[in-house]
Amino acid sequence: MARGMRCISTGCMMAYDYLKAGDNITSETHYSAAGRMYEMFVANAGTYIKLGQMFGQLEALVPPEYIKTFEPMCMRAPRTSFADVKMIIEEESGQKMEDLFESFEERPIASASLGQVHKARL
Question: In Å, what is the CA distance from 50 to each residue of 23, 42, 85, 104?
């Protein structure tokens, strides 16, 4: 529900940016709208990151300001905080993380659009 609401509100703000610009759509207008979309994709995470990566490759279809804005998402995916990782592991397993792992490195080795990798020992 929250993701859907973020999409709707972001879409409305982007539409307002373009309506306000009227016939004077500038590079700044595109950067503003692209920034709003980028932040929404990051906040929604998961498949939205994958969509953002694909969106950043649509050079023939979207203004260059969008490509530049989404470039970081294509080069490196945002990382999930260790607090969130710990919470997910404990909720999914029903156990304390300390009881599951002998060691678990807080900093991920790598991250991708749909997950990240941590070094751990059972």
Answer: 32, 10, 19, 26
